Amino acid sequence: MDTQQLQKDKLNIINWISQLEDISLVEKLKAIMSSSETCLLSDLQKKAIDEALESIKTEGTTPHNTVMEETKKRFPHLYNR
Question: Which is more confidently placed, 41 or 68?
C-alpha cells in the first residue's frame, strides 16, 4: 500500500468513527487503542483453545487417515456424490 492510499484509508476510518452512534462499538475501539496486545477472542474461545491444547498434551492426536475413515463410515452419503 502506498503512502497516499494509506492516508486516504486513515481519513475514511476517521470519518467513519466520527459518525458512530453505537456506544458499545466505541468502547471496543477504545479498548483496542489502549491494549498493546489486542486479542479479539472471547474468554469462552480462549478457554476452548486452552482445553484443546491440554487435551493434545495428555491424550495426543488422531491421525488424519483415521479421522477420514471414520467420517466415511458415519457419513457415506457425503462421499457418494
Answer: 68
